[in-house]
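Researcher: Please predict.
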Amino acid sequence: MTHYLRAFAETSGEADGPIRFVASNEGDPGDGFDLKAEDWDFGRFLRNPVIPRGHGFMGARLPIGKAVSVGIEGRSMVAAVQFDPHDDFAQQVERKYRDGYLSAVSVSWDTVGGRNHLLEISGVPVPMDPDALMERQKRGLADIGKTLSKILEDDDK
């Protein structure tokens, strides 16, 4: 079986609870694969939705969390990850995501019959897609713009 690895940026999460990640976007980030949102199949992944730190196909790494949801939003695959509250290492990784020291995940998949079967979502320090980190910045700037617009509207009243 051939599978591929690809990484994308996370979106900011709440102060607690699951952290939402953009796990895959349409387009070619340089790996030659334009992964269309409608081509994803989550069946295999959802049978065992664990999240390892780094890719752990052979079980060398214990999971640091689990995906509590995964789905398509627009042209992106989005996953909400709950980190293991009873694992010190998982909590350390979660803090790094929340504090901005980590900001990427990686997906692996197998393409069969024109469908991209999600095998894994992993926490990683460096994404393959160099533009993935810009996604987080764009979302942050959009949030700032909304806040400023609301402040200006309130001032006009």
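Model: Confidence is low (pLDDT under 50) at residues 8-13, 131-135.
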